[in-house]
Specification:
This protein is an alpha+beta fold and 92 residues long. The protein has one domain. The strands form 2 sheets. A two-stranded antiparallel sheet has the order 1-2. A two-stranded antiparallel ribbon has the order 3-4. The chain starts with a helix and ends in a 24-residue tail after the last helix.
Length: 92
């Protein structure tokens, strides 16, 4: 199993453009955080869909790599999201 620090270092090296931070990884899951600034918002002050999709994609990637090991070329083949409510830009 890949540790949180190993995963964070892997993302820093392979995906320096990501704004996601690994909070935990293991047991087929992970917890990520993503700082929300002005550039991540859409009109009305909600987090933009592309930001939410990027975080979901990175979260699945991290959870899977946490189980199979660090494989840089593993890719997402399909991703769909249904918005059930307006995403807030405030910290939970």
């Amino acid at each position: 199993m890949v540790s949180k620090s190993e995963m964070a270092e892997f993302l820093r090296k392979e995906f320096p453009q990501t704004k996601c931070t690994v909070e935990s990884v293991g047991n087929r899951s992970c917890v990520l955080s993503h700082e929300i600034g002005f550039e991540e918002l859409r009109p009305g002050g909600t987090v933009s869909g592309p930001v939410l999709m990027a975080v979901a994609d990175v979260a699945l990637y991290v959870a899977i790599l946490g189980e199979i090991g660090l494989v840089a070329l593993a890719v997402t083949t399909s991703l769909n999201i249904n918005f059930l409510r307006k995403p807030s830009s405030e910290k939970a």
